[in-house]
Specification:
This protein folds into two domains: 146 residues, Sandwich (Immunoglobulin-like); 30 residues. It contains three helices and nine strands, in the order αβββαββββββα. Helix content is 31%, strand content 28%. By secondary structure, the chain is α+β, with helices and mostly antiparallel strands. The N and C termini lie far apart (124 Å). Strands 2, 4, 5, 7, 8 and 9 form a six-stranded mixed sheet that branches. The protein is elongated, with a radius of gyration of 30 Å. One of its GO terms (biological process) is nitrate assimilation. One of its GO terms (molecular function) is nitrate transmembrane transporter activity. It comes from Marchantia polymorpha subsp. ruderalis. Keywords: Cell membrane, Membrane, Nitrate assimilation, Signal, Transmembrane, Transmembrane helix. One of its GO terms (cellular component) is plasma membrane.
């Protein structure tokens, strides 16, 4: 009986430990302070206001501890800050009727920011990165969010851009295919003209020989 009671206590302890671990691992977005200022800029060959092309254009992203946090916070506010994780996030307009992009306050269930851009070491002076928009990014309206991580990789703060960017998806056709198609089309037209001219010459010769 004592052995059975011991096993029950052990199982109970494991269940309690698992529950505490789950609660500790759960991070709610609504509880995170907004301590970073984040800006982005589109780099493209043909400037277009807020418009970028997947696979071609680049995003320049800059982040820094915002002035409000620096002034209002006590020294050591960012003592636990280790890294900054930059993510591309769907804007609310691109989440409508799309469950796979749905926002959730529990960051483990949140699908808003599914595209990782970069992870950088935290510094109060800030940092920046240039990211080429990958070909697999769907066409949608986006913003950039930066999560501050502690030594355990847990989100402890954040910041995000105020402006929105629209990304056009890749068309699926490579430029070389278009060039090849144009060459083939020109060759086909040239061949057709050549054969028509040849047939015309043969017709004239046939008419001349009959006369």
């Amino acid at each position: 009986m004592a052995a059975a009671m011991g096993q029950s206590l052990l199982c109970g302890a494991w269940v309690l430990f698992a529950l505490l671990s789950f609660v500790d691992a759960t991070v709610l977005f609504s509880t995170l302070p907004r301590t970073l200022a984040v800006e982005d800029e589109i780099q493209n060959q043909v400037p277009a206001m807020g418009l970028a092309k997947a696979g071609d254009d680049h995003l320049v992203i800059r982040w820094v501890l915002n002035a409000t946090a620096q002034e209002a916070a006590a020294p050591g506010l960012d003592a636990s800050y280790e890294k900054v994780s930059l993510k591309l996030c769907y804007a609310p307009v691109s989440q409508v009727e799309r469950g796979w992009r749905k926002k959730n306050d529990d960051l483990h269930k949140d699908k808003t920011c599914s595209k990782a851009i970069a992870t950088q070491k935290y510094t109060s002076q800030g940092n920046s990165t240039v990211w080429r928009i990958t070909k697999d990014v769907p066409g949608a309206v986006y913003f950039v969010r930066a999560y501050v991580l502690n030594s355990n990789g847990t989100q402890v703060a954040y910041g995000q851009t105020r402006n929105l960017i629209t990304i056009e998806p890749i068309s699926g056709r490579h430029a070389s295919i278009d060039v090849a198609a144009a060459i083939f089309s020109a060759f086909s037209v040239g061949s057709l003209i050549f054969f028509l001219a040849l047939e015309n010459m043969r017709g004239r010769r046939s008419s001349g020989s009959k006369e």
